[in-house]
Write a structure and sequence with these properties.
alpha+beta, Nuclear Transport Factor 2, Chain: A, 9 strands
């Protein structure tokens, strides 16, 4: 399955999920409260990503894991889901080798296809519904590369869909889904094989 097809399928699933939320809200299953603005949610989530990156850089597993709920699960396309209980011991064991590369930051970049990519976590879409949010982002690294004599910014990483929930401790990530693995973008556009 190609990268574009994977992202298209993921976006269709996200649209269906939004429809499910609307039905739940209209039927009273989800009770509307004083919802945060999308901008506030986005700022808090980007700050949480940055806090986790900073903790990884310091080798602080406890702080890095604060981003996630206790029932957090990670799903990589084509693999079985892995719960926090399975991943957390690996993070604690390998924290010394998980240091992000220099210049790796969390940022809001809805225009990456026009403006290009950077190293780190680039959030490009946030959709909220009460105390839940779907976040689409790129997680990877960028480098300058000359291809056929022309300089480009080449990014390698994954398109990710994270599901966040509002808790008494703020917004926390409940599910991390890698929609693509080892994807390559050249100046923000899918690279031809």
């Amino acid at each position: 399955m190609g990268t574009e097809e994977t992202v298209t399928r993921a976006n269709r699933r996200a649209s269906r999920l939004t429809g499910v939320w609307a039905v739940l809200l209209l039927t009273g299953v989800l009770l509307p409260g004083a919802a945060d603005s999308v901008e506030d949610v986005r700022r808090e989530i980007v700050a949480s990503y940055q806090s986790a990156l900073d903790a990884l850089a310091r080798g602080d597993a406890d702080e890095a894991l604060k981003i996630d709920t206790p029932d957090w699960v990670s799903i990589t396309a084509g693999e079985k889901p892995r719960p926090r209980a399975e991943i957390e011991p690996l993070v604690r064991r390998d924290i010394g080798s998980m240091k992000p590369p220099p210049g790796c930051v969390a940022s809001w970049r809805p225009d990456y296809e026009r403006a290009g990519t950077t190293a780190g976590i680039q959030v490009y879409d946030v959709r909220t519904n009460g105390d839940a949010a779907i976040v689409l982002c790129l997680v990877g690294n960028s480098r300058n590369e000359v291809i056929d004599g022309t300089p480009y910014v080449v990014w390698t990483g994954s398109h990710v869909r994270d599901t966040w929930v509002k808790t008494t401790g703020g917004w926390k990530r409940r599910m991390h889904e890698k929609l693509t693995v080892n994807e390559r973008l050249v100046d923000g556009k899918t690279a031809k094989p």
